[in-house]
Design brief:
The protein is an alpha/beta fold. 48% of the residues lie in helices and 16% in strands. The strands form 2 sheets. Strands 1, 4, 5, 6, 7 and 8 form a 6-stranded mixed β-sheet that branches. The chain has a two-stranded antiparallel sheet with strand order 2-3. Strand 4 and strand 5 form a beta hairpin. Helix 4 packs antiparallel against helix 5.
Length: 301
């Protein structure tokens, strides 16, 4: 196993442990327990909700979506709804196990020629098309036939609400802030501006991380596109001594956009670009706060 693969697996394991700790703490809180009691016999109607307020109103749920516990509680209910739909569509005898949030290594994706940002009841998949594999995916997951996969590989009626709720959780916001701090500084080094804007209205995962250990411009462009296509927050990680080469690709896209009006720059500058040490520092800070040992594989930089 290469150092890259070892590091990739280490990140997946440690981030899953980190997220699991936060979620377990929330689920054992008094607010979570009282939310369960308040929800009572209400069942989520099997339909797509345009936003969380509509979900609460239709189901007569007296909750205000303004804290981590409530956000996670509603997200948990929505994922349950999606799991039921998957079980019925695939004619499973029992619902497959799932996790609200996990980091998965070598995560697959799945797209069809009739995919759309919004999925409606009765949706039938068309013909499969090229679907990339991403090095690391942070997403709700489902375990089916011994394989752990992001739940987003299935058509989700409330995918945008699920990812929107997860994105607002304070520990996810904390991770995003730490990554953004380094990313902004990296872009500023060459006079460019990182554009932190939602671009993917049907993501398969919350974060898609591509690890590029040998800078080849063609391969690197593929990493950029994979992460952009699959995630709400695309991330590209490169060795410390290759960071300038990676940023140079974004700079090239800016020049091409300016002189040839092929506006790829506005897309590429939405990618979080970090060196391996910068990413390691950001994650280690969060791990330390939770009493979890830091990322290993120190030789991978």
């Amino acid at each position: 196993m290469t150092l890259t693969n070892q590091f990739q697996n280490e990140v997946a394991r440690k981030l899953t442990e980190l997220f699991g700790g936060y979620i377990s703490e929330i689920k054992h809180s008094d607010v979570w327990i009282s939310s369960n009691e308040l929800f009572g016999a209400n069942q989520l109607i099997r339909r797509q909700y345009n936003d969380i307020n509509e979900l609460l109103e239709v189901n007569a749920i007296d909750l205000q979506c303004e804290d981590d516990t409530t956000r996670l509680f509603i997200c948990h209910k929505l994922i349950h709804l999606e799991i039921d739909n998957i079980r019925e569509n695939k004619r499973m005898r029992v619902a497959p196990p799932f996790k609200i949030l996990e980091c998965v290594s070598e995560s697959c994706s799945r797209y069809f020629d009739n995919d759309a940002a919004l999925v409606y009841p009765g949706h039938i998949n068309g013909q499969p098309i090229y679907s990339p594999v991403v090095d690391l995916a942070i997403a709700p997951t489902i375990k089916y036939r011994q394989h752990t996969q992001p739940i987003g590989i299935y058509p989700l009626y409330n995918g945008r609400n699920i990812f929107g709720l997860l994105d607002k959780l304070s520990f996810i916001q904390g991770l995003k802030r730490k990554l953004d701090e380094h990313c902004i500084a990296n872009y500023n080094r060459i006079g460019l501006r990182y554009d932190n804007i939602e671009h993917n209205y049907r993501p398969l995962c919350l974060f898609a991380l591509e690890i590029e250990n040998q800078i080849n411009k063609k391969h690197l462009m593929g990493d950029f596109m994979n992460s952009l296509l699959l995630a709400r927050h695309p991330v590209v990680l490169v060795p410390e001594n290759k960071l300038d080469d990676c940023l140079e690709l974004v700079n090239l896209s800016k020049i091409i956009s300016d002189i040839k009006q092929v506006n790829i720059y506005d897309l590429l500058r939405r990618v979080i670009i970090l060196s391996i040490p910068q990413f390691r520092q950001s994650v280690d800070q969060l791990l330390n706060e939770r009493g979890i040992s830091c990322l290993g594989i120190q030789d991978f930089r």
